[in-house]
Amino acid sequence: VAQILRSRFRGCLAAAVAGDCIGAEFEGRCRPVDKILGYVEHVNKQRGREVEFTDDTAMARSVASSLIECKGFDARDMATRFAKEYKRESGRGYGGNVITVFYRLLDEGLQDVFEPAREQFDGRGSYGNGGAMRVAPVALYAYGNVEKVQDVAKQTAMITHFNREGYNGAILEALAVHLALQQSKDENLNVVKFVDNLLEKMRIVEVNDAGSSQSEGQAVGQSEDNKTGQSEGTEGDQSEEEKGSKEAASSKEASLPDQPYCAKLEIMKEFLQREKVSRQEVQDQLGNDIKALNSVPAAIFSFLHCTRSVDDIPTDNALERTIIYAISLGGDTDTIATMAGAIAGAYYGIEYVPPPWMKACEGANDAVRFADQLYCLATGE
Ligand code: 8NA
Ligand code: MG
Ligand code: MG
Ligand code: MG
Question: Ligand 4: distance of its center to the CA of 336 in Å?
């Protein structure tokens, strides 16, 4: 059992690195799957470490090393690592505004490390996916304690992302990794139950948070489309109970935008119960951009959708399939793929990360080392 868990810790961080490295080639673009498959072939033929990581991995490494060195969460230490790492290698493709936070964090006279993030965007804070993209090490560190997973995920995100969409995205991604680590692999994963589990947690997170919100208003603009989508689909073989719960889900959407992540999870659940879902629908309704709200759900969906075969991705390796599918959604590909990779790696383990990827991707071996250190910290072994 210990060996399996260690493998899952390693898989989580290594697949996150691979998703970032391979996904970076396509960032900001949307390419047909055969182009992505062709690029993966190219990566597989690399002899050295040719494929570089970006800001996603650079920041995840700071999260991991801070937790390890401090034997726990220390906001100032982590903030300083973010800022120093940015100063050391500023060309890793950081978000456009987070760098102003880094400059302020470098000021040794700064009293409150959360202040620069709080003052971003006229006090609204960043809703970018930068808090979520780097959160996987938190789920490993806090393994076994779901309250701690959520709390530390929020704190680590708030160093740069003070908007509720920013830090709640980090909470959701951390919860998905946490849940993936806990799943038995003896039977097929119940993907709907997985989403229900996340919904249960996020409902509480978003309801508790709604009062204190600096919410963006424009959050989810597609609830009308979504209702149309829900009235189609699997109607024929639906029990009365299922119909009832779908009605409840629709009425909950009325409370938008206070529970934007729950609304996305409801859409995701509906997608997962269907025979076919087009990439266009996923892009339109879950999103694929730099907002946390428009990328964390896409990452979770990629993992769950790819537990089954996908027509145009001819590989038997479900972790590889997950990362390729995540990239094929286009947009913020490195970030969606790193988040999907972290969840898939936590479920499948390091054995599923293709050896040529371990060889080609910069930082893949470091990820294994960080995973082992977090494993010691989390389990005391
Ligand atoms: P961030 O905090 O600078 O946010 C990213 C961007 O989101 C900002 O530059 C703004 O344009 C916008 N934004 C965020 N919050 C608000 C707000 N409250 N009001 C108006 N606009 C807002 O950086 P981050 O760390 O969240 O960024 C992460 C993403 O940027 C990752 O995808 C990362 O890889 C990087 N990145 C993405 C692309 C891309 O094309 N998708 C390109 C380069 C870098
Ligand atoms: Mg290169
Ligand atoms: Mg990046
Ligand atoms: Mg990105």
Answer: 7
Query: Is pLDDT at 17 greater than 60 in this prediction?
Result: yes
Residue 27 structure tokens: 């960032």
Q: E-assigned strands of the chain? A: none
**Residue the block writes with tokens 């100032």:** 76
pLDDT band at 257 (very low <50, low <70, confident <90, very high): low
Which residues does residue 19 pair with via DSSP β-bridges, in sequence order? none
Closest CA to 349 of 379, 375, 325, 330: 375
Asked whether the predicted pLDDT for residue 201 surpasses 90, the reply is yes
Q: For residue 16, give the nearest of 377, 344, 341 by alpha carbon.
A: 341
Interatomic CA distance for residues 11 and 9, integer angstroms = 6
| Alpha carbon distance 112, 10 (integer Å) | 34
Query: For residue 38, what are its two tokens?
Result: 């062709």
Are the C-beta atoms of 324 and 33 separated by less than 8 Å?
yes
Using CB distances shorter than 6 Å, the residues near ligand 1 are 27-28, 54-56, 93, 95-98, 121, 124, 126-130, 133, 163, 290, 332, 334-335
Bond from prior residue into 314 cis (ω within 30 degrees of 0): no
Residues present in the chain in total: 381
Measured in Å, residue 23 CA sits from the centre of ligand 2 at 13
All residues at 6 or more sequence positions from 212 whose CB lies less than 8 Å from its CB, including other chains? 164
